[in-house]
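hi support,

uploading two proteins for the ticket. first:
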Amino acid sequence: MRWDNLADNPAKTTTPGTGALFAADAVTTRTFDTPEFRGITFHEIRARSIVNRVPGASRMPFEWTVNPYRGCTHACVYCFARKTHSYLDLDTGLGFDSQIVVKINAPELVRRELSAARWHGAHIAMGTNVDCYQRAEGRYRLMPGILTALRDHANPFSILTKGTLILRDLELLRQAAEVTEVGVSVSVGFTDPELWRTVEPGTPSPERRLDVVRTLSEHGIGCGVLMAPVIPYLGDRPDQLRATVRAVADAGATSVTPLVLHLRPGAREWFMEWLGLHHPHLVRRYERLYADGAYAPTWYQRRITRYVHELATEYGIGPSHHGTPRGFPERGEERTPPAGPEPTQLTLL
């Protein structure tokens, strides 16, 4: 996927995959000299489409996504979405954390695509590539327009986030929940403060994220927790898992779904570099654990899942159906294509 294929007014190139990454007539590049955005560059683009079809081979249970941003200031060292920046010839390390693509026309595109005759109200998942409530959303305010369009069309949707900014849109979420199915999940893989500071430096603390769960629940919006990632040898001790599940239960979560760290290309290289700097004694153990690919061995995943589910039962909460975050539909529900071209979206797994 090249940048020119994303632009509403794509630049002309003689050969696919060549030419300038950001065409002058397609992109406005901005920087803001404020503490929260210092060192970050925003590339504002008028996208051609926004409702993306998930590849058929994906493990995810949903089939349509909306992602108003590319790149993420959360700067999670393990983020699977880092690879997506390489498709734009951007760096998957620091570039992913600091070069943020903003689809400034996302709200109007959502409204237009939901209004098309060919769209029949399929579930739309958000926050499955990069976080739609990352810091940039505080300035660009794309989500209120997106949520308003979804509400007005009574279109079911779900949101996965690490961002506390979702509480700004609480009233819109309540309004949408009155007319359609709304699912919200907050990602909290661990509550260890030192681990959080090193692997998720740009995110709100786990405690603040659990406050989001608590606030949503108090306002009648059930919220699940995606316990992701469980990081081998750093966040998988029984006492760490117990502390996290207990905190999730105390926050009033409707479910908890564990997901072991996976290291796909792009993320793997960046994470292993970080591991070598901060925990060099674990490098060989990780090489063995992930020797067969991006995923930890099945035995390890099952062990973590079984223990977390046992803890969830002990603390009075249950895992989501088939281990998926609350609000996501079952795979195989009606596939309803939007009008126009059907871009393929890289997915969570």
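and the second one:
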Amino acid sequence: MPASYAYLGPEGTFTEVALRTLPETATRELVPYVSVQSALDAVRNQEAEAAFVPIENSVEGGITTTLDELVAGQPLMIYREVLLSITFALLVRPGTKLSDIKTVTAHPAAQPQVRNWLKANLPDAVWESAASNADGARLVQEGRYDAAFAGEFAAARYGLEALETEIHDAENAQTRFVLVGRPARPAAPSGADKTSVVLWQRADHPGGLRDLLGEFATRGINLMLLQSRPTGAGIGNYCFCVDAEGHIADRRMAEALMGLKRLCLQVRFLGSYPRADIGVADVRPPFMGTSDEEFMAAADWVTRCQDGRF
């Protein structure tokens, strides 16, 4: 297996910057790929040990390209996550003035994060999407577009200038990235973990989603992301991508997943892994009756009743 990590390229993406915050990258070859799909396929085809891709941002929510790739195809598993604060620069060829800009480009996920700035400063500029923000910078270098929204750090890589910096419509905007590999045993609980799953209903009926979410609610499990994605089976057919606080090794999470497995047509486990937004364990005491000790005590009581020892 190559000691390499695939990532959404080319060089100079926010994805690369976030990836390089992981200590293990010092001993891995970092290989850029042209799309999220090709990076994940590199893992599926055993061309790379893992792939690092964006999955959510604080402005628009889940990144559908990544979610859809994790929902479909050969199963993969999330092992790590990284949060990166995002602010954009407007990159141009040297000598370009704001009044010269007629076309701009960036990754589609960037547009909602700079929409208001664009309206106020370049209201007549035509937007075209690029495969990544760094690829947009490359296209500006080649003369395809007048300007690109990208990280300021990408300017030197592509021979561009940052005409404007610190561009963002929302303060403290962040993007979440995940390290994805082939399925294996999850790492031991850290005490501040997240579990990701995809849920398919057996049939569409009133209260169906409530029934699924109830498996988490009755066990005091907080949800951190809930996003529906079309299954491709027709209008109105959706699966649900869920991030929930806790680890599959926790009794309450394990029981919730068992309940979902009984209720759902299909459940895809995407991993249990440490949360990037919390650095300490036991950030929130479990709700009454939902600690591992209480689950084990209840299970022991049932066993004793079955044995006539109550």
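thanks. also noticed: Residues 43 and 50 are 6 Å apart (CA to CA).
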